[in-house]
Fold these 3 entries.
Entry 1:
Amino acid sequence: MDMLRIAIPNKGRLSEKIYDILNCAGMVFPSKDERTLQVTTKDQKYSIIFVRTQDIPMFVENSIADIGFTGFDILTESKSNVEKVMDLDFGNCEMVVAVKEEDSYKTVQELPQEIKVATSFPNIAKEYFERIGKNPKIIEVSGATEITPRLGLSDVVVDITSSGTTLKSNKLRIIDKILKSTAIVIANKNLTEEKKEKTLTLLRALKSVIDAREKKYLMAHVPKKSVEEIRSFLPGLSSPTIMTLAGDEENVVMHVVVDADKVYDSIDRLKRLGGKGILIMTVDQMVK
């Protein structure tokens, strides 16, 4: 039996979130710490290797890992010959062009023809500026990109931001956006049929966990006469489940899946319509 090898970031919030989702998807891994480089599930079907986010496309392309979790920005920069198999609904950010607040430039077209660009994404930055007719001098840095204009090292920066707070705190101003990025799953293009099946199984499990995190499971005793009105604002996945109560002819039990961000408004409306004994539970996985 071929073990499916999975590469995930070795540190940071993205690493923790991915590891948590994999565990929630039913992949039972032993506990780890920052020095852990590899773990294997108890059933020996899956193995995780922890590497730098930037290295994951290369690991997958060269069959060191079968699939990997990284960012769309990282994949675009790497130009690796791998297959993107799933977008994940987290790790959202944008790659932007930023200048000093006091600079007069309003658009990238106003920038000088010869331009010094500090970035951790040299391939993307070079292609972008050449595409708009500029002659960029790319200064590759591995961190603290935002400080380079103040030090005179660069005229502009090309960097990733999720809120813009770090740029603002370093007195930089965004003048263009290059691409949007999220966390993604990538796969080697030459997987065996067995590993393709394992990958599809894993992706289905991941989707069920991600979908479930946006939902809550709600149970309540409600008057029969209010069921139709309740259905109008609690439709569930298709329709609520209604069950009878022993010895009670006037009330029923309603089971329904609701959007997590609407659950408390729903409870208020339920109570006004006579709902009682309301229970709210988390949903671990949800297969649509």
Entry 2:
Amino acid sequence: MIKFNLDKQVKLSFYDQIKGQLLSAIYCGKINEGDRLPSIRELSESLGVNYKTIRGIYLRLSRENYLELVKGSGAFLKKRSGSDTYDQMRRRATFRLLGETSEKARNLGISPEKFAQLLSNYWTGNNLRKLRLAVIDHEEEAFIFSRELKMRLRAEVVPIALGPLPANGTAREIQQCDYLLTTSWHMEEVSALAARFQKEVVEIKPSREIYNEILTAAKDRNVAIVIQDERTMHASWEIFMNIFYPSTDKKFWIAPIHREDLLNKIIKEADVIFVSPMCWDEMRKRAPAEKELKTYENFISEETISWLKELQLLG
């Protein structure tokens, strides 16, 4: 069933917003003739809008032959005929999409044959350039980011821990890579290394969703973050302690897994524990079954992943 949303800050009327979302769903094929829509009461309650207001919008859409209101059953997308059929509306929208996209490709100097091949590769994920990447960071971060890039991009990725100048074997690995990747905290030192090997550096930006979830939880729950290597704590400490804390009176810990004193306190008092993938097995063994533990597969932002996908497709 389609879900409507309203933005009460824009100038568009509620009617125009709901009608626009309805038509968009029709054009995209997300809703078909005869499909049930939220009832007047359901929509009124979900949007927090007066029942009479929603009823007026539905009655207007009904008069315009978009909806059919069936007493006791609800609202349904009306079946239409003639030049206004939904198949024709979708066909027209598809034709317009093809025209607009083709025009943009033409303006970029891309031939029809090349554009068709690029679109097929983008859609299917086939015939993409095989990237060879080196993630250079502290050991824990290098491992986590490398594992994610292998899964999400099917790239060849080697994790390299920050430290002294690379040994011969590591030097060969860097030389064979297309790009070096690191976080903003180590950009200066990795850029110097990249210059030595004449490689380009790509910044790994972390996923904001993870930070947002942790910050949201910390507002009303005791929260802990458990990591493997305390050298990676600088990022969490800066983000969570300097920016967020102490805007809550709840307890908040960041601890490496070898800190027994902190870990015992966390297991006893934390309401939710966010765990590095490298620590998951150990924490699951040590924490009671009822203790809420959370970890993640995706730590890298969509912005960074999209940039690397561009290199795969067009690099």
Entry 3:
Amino acid sequence: MEKTDIRYQTYLKILQEELVPAMGCTEPIALAYAAAEARKVLGAFPENVKIEVSGSIIKNVKSVIVPNTNHMKGIPAAAAAGIIAGRPERELEVISEVTDGEREEIRRFLENVKISVEHVETGHVFDITVTEACGEEYAKVRIVDRHTNIVLIEKNGQILFRKELEEAPAENHADRSLLNMQDIWEFVQTADTEDVKELLERQIRYNSAIAEEGLLGDYGANIGSVLLRTYGSDIRTRAKAKAAAGSDARMNGCEMPVIINSGSGNQGITCSVPVIEYAKDLGSGKEKLYRALLLSNLTAIHQKSEIGTLSAYCGAVSAGAGAGAGIAYLCGGGYQEIIHTIVNALAIVSGIVCDGAKASCAAKISASVDAGILGYQMYLNGQEFKGGDGIVMNDIEATIRGIGHLGKEGMKGTNEEIIKLMIQGSSEKKY
């Protein structure tokens, strides 16, 4: 693929858009970002705050620890952190620089300021509106469809910024419709690694660091440590354990950044850390690792582009299939091995539902990475799932489209029921 090819330039732009740093689970961070931007527009700390969010935001914020808040959880905590200590110019690292004094201010703010939360459904799965008021003045910020995609800024009845909603998902956004496995494969083989070296080195550095921290510390259910103690330290177990450990750390208060994929830190960890671990074990060298990461990242993004930002379909499944493809490439696999690895992996674990961000994400990541590795081993042993086997279609693109439709449209009702269960199951009956 020539550098002048529109596909080459588009794939580079997709990677630049997707592989960005974030601290903490990205949904509460998006909420903190909106709250920080509203406070900036208001020009004062608010006396009351109104938050309107879609059900999927409730699902993904309710149970996860917000970084730099002394282990607070939930929508009010995320908003308070953004209001008190947020630096909106940092976007998904909006609350990465919080002083001890600001942590105490966040606590006092939550005790003294009314923060109301309303569940709204607008037709957008990802929807956050934060309205902050001080005296007679107010400021409103709305984010739709993507974590930093501000579509409205309003102050005291005056519209300061507005983006038409039908334009919001695509404006200045690289065209994901150009993604397909044949072209991804060609790009992986021909890309000038100097064009992606900085992006991928940052992914390797950040995501490896939080995976190591997850194994050293006591985070969540410590899935990584459980795997290593139970099954030993062979490469397959290490690949799963390190990815799970990275997730456990970021879901449970670790204040280290990750490089995300498809808007998710867990997916960023899942499609990179197992590939990095296999490359070390195989002695693959940086050049081959870079190409394996290109394959894994773009495979995950391709799948998620069909599904959308948030769904009842667990994003770790897409990332685990991507990791399986990257591992197959490191082990010498060609195009046929890779596409069959992906299909096999998806056939195994596409039933995993997303019930929000929390400690069990790490276990789902482990299962998804395992499915990716098993998918490759199946093909090496002459075994594969074929078109007509359940949701497996006759080719890779049809399978990805079909599962995308299942995740985006077919599981809408499932998503609503999961949200109801999560709200009902809360002992405090709060978001």
